[in-house]
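Hi there,

I know you've been waiting on this one. I reran it after we fixed the sequence typo, so this is the corrected version. Both the input and the resulting structure follow.
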Amino acid sequence: MENFVFHNPTKLVFGKGTVEKIGEYLKKDGIRKVLMLYGGGSIKKNGVYEKVVRSLHDNGIEKVEVSGVRPNPVLSKVHEAIQVARENNVEAILAVGGGSVVDSAKAIAAGFYYDGDIWDAFIGKYNVKKALPLYVILTMSATGTEMNGNAVVTNEKTQEKFYFSSKHVYPVLSIVDPTTQYSLPANQVVYGAIDAISHVMEYYFDVAGSDLIDRIDEGIIKTLMETTEVILKEPENYEARANFCLATTLALNGLTGLGTTGGDWSSHELEHAISAFNPDIAHGAGLAIVFPAWMSYVKEQICEKLIKFGKNVFGMSGEFSPDDVINQLKSWYREVGAPVTLKEVGISKEDIEKLTEIANKHAPFGTVKELKAEDIRKIYEIAYE
């Protein structure tokens, strides 16, 4: 186990009827005007928008709105919202939506005080020194961004999907009401689960860790798998939703990384290239494809961990190989409706060279095995079919 410091400043407000509390929390913190950021309008269909607006009004909070944040959020929308925030002298950002909205909000909050292009933070030219306070109402559980300081955005002009991390963009407060997610399409539940499972696995297969955190990791993954299966059959099963939502938050709020070297994160780097290349491919779908391919490529380095994973997550017994574990993971992904090959999402063999080029911009990466261009290409080839 490596040394660590664990500190998470985000207040998590969890459970039924919590959305209506947002105005009270903002008022208590002395916030008088917010930029309200959201996506394509689903919050107006499920009643969340009305609840938020009423709560803001009842507590004397002014708002300006920016909508239209899309999955795999883009830099141009961040630029637009920063301008709106400045023109209206807002005091905080209120993100109402899923991971794309919250990640965009983090970039907006950081960009508000920065004279240059906030993309500089994503490419390592600027370390965020200050940001507007961020408040979150989460309407889709997947990324864990509601309780961490990470943000991922795509620069559509350069086809680069990069991230930055800063203590300054941890949300002040995040509200998670599982009932707001009852109406989510099945594929969003599945891809949210795979995203969160992948976050845990990035740490689980790191070169360092501890038995305690491994057991926590295994419990989170099993919970996500079990609750996903229930939710697909019973979308309004509150206990399943609540456990699913909490598991996705715990997957990337710092807990699962304790005692590791920081996680491997190769699979995320590989996937970011896929969804930068084709933004219509969901992040969770891309991870379902590349994570098993990465496992196959580095199975000699993670052989013992794969066997442990097979026993404790899938309940496998007797004689079985690392390949059996990888195939079991792919089998579960198929069962819940996720793709497991690049071919299934419309990427051709000829596209592998472009994917390699995009991913290689961040290479070398990985702690289990340092991946360079040739390694990246070989993993995409494994993932093809």
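Quick highlight: The radius of gyration is 20 Å.

Best,
R. S.
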